[in-house]
């Protein structure tokens, strides 16, 4: 079976041809099959965020290749590529607007059923019901992490809003490494 994500002989250098040139990744290879889970662990500055940022082409690789579904990411239109990927940021955040607006961040036309399904998957339905009951105007730090767009990845399943990207879960959050 062909991997859903393949990183082959990848290197990335920041600040090429400047006094600030820095090799962030050198000859990294990784293969991830559909449904597999990967945790990236390393010291600050070891290249974890750089590696993740190369998959949706926030940066282009200096050498090597990143392939999704067997195709080099450079061959995809950016919108198509990014539609295949669920990226979970390290820090929870909420955007301005309603909870519904935040839930629709990944899929603007998500139905109410899809939103409720995403809330259940993120184990956040009870939190939202409580907020609605109290008619809360502000979401404090604790519940915010449960209804932020990235929280919809929920329980190690890559989900962003009502959208369901396929493939590997590249959740970098340390707590997801605990056994369930």
Q: Helix amount, in percent? A: 25-40%
**Category from helices, strands and their pairing:** alpha+beta
Global morphology: elongated
**Averaged pLDDT, please?**
76
Radius of gyration: 18 Å
Quaternary status: single chain
**Beta fraction of the residues?**
15-25%
Count of discrete alpha- or pi-helical segments spanning 4 or more residues: 6
Strand order of the largest sheet: 2-1-3-4
Description:
The protein is of the alpha+beta class and 180 residues long. Helix content is 25%, strand content 16%. The protein has a four-stranded antiparallel beta sheet with strand order 2-1-3-4, covered by helices on one side. Strand 3 and strand 4 (71-72) form a beta hairpin. The longest helix has 10 residues, at 112-121. Mean pLDDT is 76; it is low at 136-141, 150-161 and 171-180.
Q: Which keywords apply here?
A:
alpha+beta; disordered C terminus; 180 residues; 6 helices
What is the gist of this entry?
The chain is an alpha+beta fold and 180 residues long. It has six helices and four strands, in the order E-E-H-E-E-H-H-H-H-H. The protein has a four-stranded antiparallel sheet with strand order 2-1-3-4, covered by helices on one side.
């Amino acid at each position: 079976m062909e991997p859903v994500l393949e990183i082959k002989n990848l290197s990335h250098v920041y600040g090429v041809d400047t006094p600030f040139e820095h090799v962030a990744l050198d000859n990294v290879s990784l293969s991830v099959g559909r449904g597999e889970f990967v945790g990236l662990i390393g010291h600050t500055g070891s290249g974890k965020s750089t590696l993740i940022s190369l998959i949706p082409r926030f940066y282009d690789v200096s050498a090597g290749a990143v392939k999704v579904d067997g195709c080099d990411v450079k061959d995809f239109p950016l919108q198509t590529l990014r539609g295949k990927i669920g990226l979970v940021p390290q820090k929870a955040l909420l955007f301005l607007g309603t909870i519904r607006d935040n839930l629709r961040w990944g899929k603007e036309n998500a139905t109410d059923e899809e939103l409720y399904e995403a809330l259940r998957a993120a184990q956040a339905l009870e939190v939202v019901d409580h907020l609605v009951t109290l008619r809360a105007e502000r979401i404090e730090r604790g519940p915010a992490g449960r209804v932020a767009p990235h929280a919809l990845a929920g329980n190690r399943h890559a989900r962003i809003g009502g959208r369901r990207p396929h493939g590997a879960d590249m959740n970098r959050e340390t707590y997801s490494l605990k056994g369930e």
